[in-house]
């Protein structure tokens, strides 16, 4: 039983603080490959031939089939900001579920819980500076 | 250090409640693919040419090599209800360990801890309605 | 060195025949779970809240980060039929590459090779009946 | 398009020869960890609290969700020797498919093709000495 | 949002106790395959043609690309004891990040947090007897 | 049975040509994220706090546990150029085998086969320009 999802808003905020603090700590380190990777990661989701909404949906489904809760929460937040509505979320979820199998279900539960919190105002999406 | 396993019975119950609540929420959504997937998932473990015990063992080992603690806990509970004894559990664990490697060990620890709780009555297996 | 990608058009056709033949063989079997899964898989990519093009792009990126060449080739074909252009393909590829890492590169090479063949008319996309 | 499955009996035999030759070469090397791992791998599938048939089915499903064609072919052969019939094979396949998702389908096609060859006498299962 | 990393020293100690207790429980079980696997796992990281430091770095990077927080924390501790300095850690992290992709980032954050705790004396590395 | 490994020197050369050609084709495309990723990938393995030999061994073990034959062949070649000897190769292989499990064995066979070819002069390592 991995912890997660079934936590209150406090835990969501605590996680956001942790992510922000560790990202700063990692980027303060003198390692150019790591820094460039973080910059590239941010660049990946900028509008181009595909719009931000589509790219964030791609990031979300990739995170779901690879089963990374932190990445899923990040992209759920970004998708919502890009205008993805609930029906669209569930269609993206359904692709992840069918491609990735029942092993995705626990992550789907936590994704839906996080989406519920965002919609109810109980959680805030992660900031833009550095992500995943 | 992923949270999990080393939690008391309260956390086990809290997780069970979370799963039940989120499953209901997911199935209340108007997405036929997701609903059908959940129904298919339940159907998969029904007795057929292979009995329930064997199928649940297959689900357990699949969950272990894919390293999903929630799925492992679910199938440990189902296996126990289907009559899998401790020696059989450890032989199934040994297949998962050898096929999946030392990366499975942290999940093995949490699986054994969950099994211990089930045997001592400190945890109850998840319900049947919807699973994983 | 996994075989693949660097094969001529003959091998592409041979693979298409193999897939078609085996799908028929699998669906002829009296196993309802397997048959329903195949039906659900087809249903997943139908237009809904998200259009077919977006859903196929989701399937493509999911297949790339999970590193399945057959699935990638299938979705490259479907994406092309849904009107995905070369710039859009490369942006989807870039999401898969950044999320999934350099381990995706060999599959990217084979994906681009397959796309080149489709554009030059050397390969035909897989049929619609049953897929992946 | 990964090569495999859609090969004739010659390729199956060629692969069997390659595996046998490389296993001998690996075990001739003076590395105790590797040798012990191979011995442990063989020991894992011996009859104990669970019979050989169940253990081989566990190995098969684990190999399918981890998507390793060579391992799948090996365990299909071992399962068949242990008396697994076609209906039982398809129920094991269905567990792997539902747990692992549509990404398993290309491996399912090659598994069924290999099983067909075994049943028709076109392929012989791998030897017992060392496996996977 | 998987729990982990953003916990205080209490949680680190709690996890260490859990691991020790469960390892003892697992090794007390009469299953020779599991016991031999644990022994082999310990043997793997002993000095040989490669020194302990290099082997622990290999274990660390393998754990990062497979995304197992417990294994990462274990190997970060072992690497530190073997004399890996902060610059070397970040170069190993950079290999894991580039090979494994942005999906590794949440684990990188927790690895750096754990390393920070070790350096500040807030956490102690896991013992030698049995690991991962 | 994935094709690979058990191919003659012709196939090795054919693969090298394919990789070179496709890398050129990918880098000719006007997609900055993809190009930067390729540049970053090359930069990752340059000498720094860790020497090239150690970094290539890290890349090799990461590729083995993620089970990518092309990446394994690439890093086996680079490791050999960096002076890794046969005993060191097998110790790196043993870490990958124990961490990743028996599912790594088919890739180990192909890695040893490729190493044998390099040592006998039957194969040449991939070029330096762009890799994986």
Largest Cβ-defined interface: A-B, 25 and 35 residues
Question: Distance between termini of chain A?
Answer: 22 Å
Average pLDDT figure of chain A: 89
Q: SSE order of chain A in H/E notation?
A: HHHHHH
Taking the sheet with the most strands of chain A, its summary is: none
* Structure summary, number of beta strands of chain A: 0
In DSSP terms (H or I, runs of 4 or more residues), the helix count of chain A works out at 6
- Rg for CA atoms of chain A: 15 Å
Sequence stretches where pLDDT stays below 50 over 5 or more residues of chain A: 1-6, 128-132
Strand fraction band of chain A?
A: under 5%
Features:
mainly alpha; 132 residues; 69% helix; 6 helices; globular; homohexamer; disordered N terminus
Structure description:
- The structure is a homohexamer of 132-residue chains.
- With 132 residues, chain A is mostly helical.
- Helices cover 69% and strands 0% of the residues of chain A.
- The first copy, chain A, is built from six helices and no strands.
- In chain A, helix 3 packs parallel to helix 5.
- The first copy, chain A, is globular.
- The two termini of chain A are 22 Å apart.
